[in-house]
Structure formats: C-alpha cells, structure tokens
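Dissemination and training. As part of the outreach component of the grant, students in the summer workshop were shown how a complex can be specified as a set of sequence lines and then modelled as a single object. The example used during the hands-on session is reproduced here so that future cohorts can follow it. Participants entered these lines:
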Amino acid sequence: MKFHGYFRSSAAHRVRIALNLKGIAPELAYVHLRKGEQRGGAYAALNPQALVPALEVDGPDGPAVIAQSMAILEYLEETHPAVPLLPRDPLGRARVRSLALICVADIHPLQNLRVLAKIRADHGVDEAGAFAWARHWNEVGLAACEASLSGHRDTGRFSHGDAPGLADCCLVPQVFSAKRFGVDLARFPAVTRIFDACQALPAFDLAQPSKQPDAEN
Amino acid sequence: MKFHGYFRSSAAHRVRIALNLKGIAPELAYVHLRKGEQRGGAYAALNPQALVPALEVDGPDGPAVIAQSMAILEYLEETHPAVPLLPRDPLGRARVRSLALICVADIHPLQNLRVLAKIRADHGVDEAGAFAWARHWNEVGLAACEASLSGHRDTGRFSHGDAPGLADCCLVPQVFSAKRFGVDLARFPAVTRIFDACQALPAFDLAQPSKQPDAEN
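and obtained this result:
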C-alpha cells in the first residue's frame, strides 16, 4: 500500500488521520501541489483525476489506485474494520457521513489551491481577497457543522459518540484550514471542543500538516 | 419516508434517480432554492445544513433527517439493498465512489446556486461571467471523469459494469448541469455514451429536472 499526499491538503490530512487511527502504515509519497506535480508525469498517469490524495493498493486482479479521500476512507473502513470509523446502525452511519460531507463537499472544494488560484487570476484579487473568499465558505460550512453537532443527542466527546470517527477525520483538517484563513472559531464552540479532543490524540496530532516530512512554511 | 428536493438541484436529482432505480416512492416535498426557502423556517429547522436534499425517515428511536446526497445514497444502499448501486468488492466500491465524488466534491460545489450568486455579488460579473466560471469547473471535472472512464477495464455499458449504479446517479445530473452551462460534450465521448445509456432508462428519464412537479423555466 502506498499513499500519495501533500502536507497541506485537507483531503490527504483526512486519510492520514484514518490511517493512524487504524494503525496502517503505508509507504508514503509526496506530490508538491504548489509546483503542479499533480498535473503531469507519473502522478497524473497514476491518478487521472490529477488531485491528491491517492492510495495504491494490491487488488485481487493486480495493482489498483483509489482517488478521492472519501472513497479511500470508505475503502479503509471496509478492508480494515478492526478500529471502526463508522457506527453500525444505518442512521448513525448516515449522520457521520452527512457531517463529513459538509467539509468534503461544501467547504473544502471552494477553498482549495486551484480554486483560490482561479479566483485570483479571473478577478484580479490579491491573496487577502482570495483568503476572504475561503474564509466565507469556511464560516458558512462550520456554522452548518456547529448547528448539526450542538445539542444533538448523538454528539459525544467526538462528532458521533465517544470514539473518534470518519466525521472527525474530516472536521479536524477543515479547522486547520479555517484557522489558516483567519476564521474566528469562538463562534463554533462544539466544533472547537471536538477539535481539541481530537488533537489530544496522537493519531490526530501526528497527522497535522506541520508534522509531515514534506511540510514547508 | 419524505424526500425534500428542488427540481434543478443536482444533489436532489442524484437521489431521485436512486429512489427510482430502487423502486422507493417516498412522500415528496419541494424547497424553492431561488426563493431561499432552504435558509429559514420549517426547512432549516428540519435540516440545519440549510441545503437540499434531505430525507426524513422513521428511525428506531423516532424520526430522523439525513442531509447530504451522498449520505442519503449510502443510506438507501444499506437499507434497500435489493437493487444494488455499489458492487460487492471493496475495490469496485472504491472505484464507483471515487467516480461519484468527482461530481459530488469537485464539480457541483463550485457551480451551485449560492456560489454563482457570490461570484456575481463579489466580483461584479454578470450571468455570462458566472456561467463561464461554472463551465470551467464542469470541463475540468468532466475531463477527470472521461479520463477515469475511458478505456478502463471496469467501465461497461454504464460507469462500472453493465448495470447502472451510484456513479451514474451522480454523473447524469452533472451532465444536465454541464449542458445548461454550455459545455461542449463532444470532448467527453465516454461520458456522453454513458449519459445516453442512462437516460434511455425510465428511472433516469423520470428523474430529470424538467419532469419534476416543481419545474420552472
């Protein structure tokens, strides 16, 4: 198993947390997004979607590559179920996936590197303008997370109950992004409490961007 | 079971297709996105994420609401497995989810109503400018779909094999959006072929935006 990531990619960060929680240690490879390494050469041949992360696995019919963080997380859950990241009941699973998808489908796609680059190129805004755009969608999405977590009977020490799961794997990287873009997290007390509970665990702490071998300022 | 949708929402469209394929006929409710009905009143109380779609279900502990189309699709798959939308093998499931997520996480979030409204408000572009932005992300994402589908041994009559599945539930609504934004689909022959195969099926045809009771021009 070989994992292709980038230290600052939220999507790669989600998978790093899940790998750590499940005790899986794949070979690691790094794709430098700011240098555009994802768009050409060997990596684009490996993953035609030309984004990180990607997971290379040995399948029954030979080697295979899985793209998309959420597909990788579900694959890891199905093939390494010993430390579960989803509850057993269908409604609980739906709640966890729904929470995860706020980050995966509603926040992160609007603030990743290629989108901020296009905002700057198309509309002549500077970095501060691109950050304001990113901050807006982080605030809208984290408000949805807060409303879904706060006061819900299934929210526990973590997003769903008292063990970390797939929703936490997605929430924590999003909070790292939100901080980077200057979001005032005091507006989101349930999100902040869960983030702190997660980061107290080595599986989360060791997955954070600044602790990766390819980290830069 | 009660399904809250909007005729033009790609996310609601995905779920309509899955419901039709599985032969599930929930009570239907309509949320008028252009009038902002999702952001206030009874609907926002029901779904704190304030987006469509949402599925109300009777859970073992009482009524529950599932937000996020992908979470709803997975829930339907787990609770109504008779017509499967995912293959059985973990790698096949990962491929189908990965294909679906190109639309769910990489294209649609960048071109939905609230994002186009913000592009227009922040940057003073007109509808044509907003459509150009939407067209760009549709083209980038559909190129990723095409590269992942074309020539892959698991691509069949549909995205994965010869029966329609979860990837098709997500691809078809995206092609409807792409057409609306003026994307030249001739660049994507595998996508177009699969779209045509899907639309030949009543489950897909009857789910299209113009055939919904709340459809408008």
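Chain A touches chain B at residues 48-51, 57, 59-60, 64, 66-68, 70-72, 74-75, 78-79, 89-91, 93-95, 97-98, 101-102, 104-106, 108-110, 115, 118, 122-123, 125, 133, 136, 144, 147-148 (CB under 8 Å). Students were then asked to discuss how this feature might be tested experimentally.
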